[in-house]
Write a structure and sequence with these properties.
Layout lengths: L10 E6 L4 E5 L5 E2 L8 H9 L8 H15 L7 E5 L7 H7 L3 E5 L14 E7 L8 H11 E10 L6 H5 L11 E2 L2 H11 L1 E7 L2 E6 L2
């Protein structure tokens, strides 16, 4: 069983609850759910359909500002971006458009126009998305290939602290969440991608592609 991020074969049992088993890579420290416990596509889509992210919800917009504000501070005027995993109610992309940026959307369930994945972008946002990646190594390579030199990848995802906190963590209970990152995982990823890493808040991560 290879780590789905770095393909390291040396993984150890991390935790088991009444739903699933979780393993941890000894190289990149990703905590992941083995494929045996992944939902099929229909069940996964049914879970996503339960999400109610309303673009008019001021609380949700305030939540997303924690990513959009530091990202906007680092972007050139009129930069072009891609909201990857935009979900059933895109909110972050319209907020960035309001800030003067051009946006494209991609979501395998709700905005499956794969032509946008043939373009290059000044920045890419992944808000509450990377924890759904079944093969995060492959997905990060794809996203990185879409960024221009100097471009930014902005991520929101909650981070693993330790085994004790993980055992009590509500975040792991979503059956569509299969990849769980910690600060050291993003450090490993930044080194692998030759990227500049900034962890702005406990769940806001920025990676800049080298010039």
């Amino acid at each position: 069983m290879l780590c789905p991020l770095c393909e390291n074969p040396h993984n150890v049992f991390f935790l088991q609850d009444r739903r699933r088993v979780y393993w941890r890579c000894q190289q990149c420290l990703l905590v992941f759910v083995p494929a045996f416990w992944h939902l099929d596509s229909g069940a996964e889509k049914a879970e996503y359909d339960l999400h109610r992210n309303d673009p008019e919800d001021t609380g949700y917009r305030c939540f997303l500002l924690r990513l959009s504000v530091p990202l906007c501070e680092r972007l050139p005027v009129a930069a072009r971006g891609l909201d990857f995993g935009s979900g059933p109610g895109p909110t972050l992309a319209p907020m960035l458009v309001e800030s003067g940026f051009r946006m494209a959307l991609y979501d395998p369930c709700y905005a499956p126009d794969s032509s946008v994945l043939e373009e290059c972008y000044d920045f890419i946002t992944c808000s509450e998305v990377v924890e759904h990646f079944r093969l995060p190594g492959r997905e990060f390579c794809r996203l990185w290939s879409l960024l221009v030199p100097g471009g930014w990848l902005g991520i929101m995802t909650k981070l693993v602290i330790d085994r004790q906190a993980f055992a009590r963590w509500h975040y792991k209970n979503d059956p569509t969440h299969v990849a769980f990152f910690c600060r050291d995982t993003f450090g490993f990823l930044a080194k692998t991608l030759n990227a500049h890493l900034e962890i702005i808040e406990p769940d806001v991560i920025l990676l800049q592609k080298a010039l």
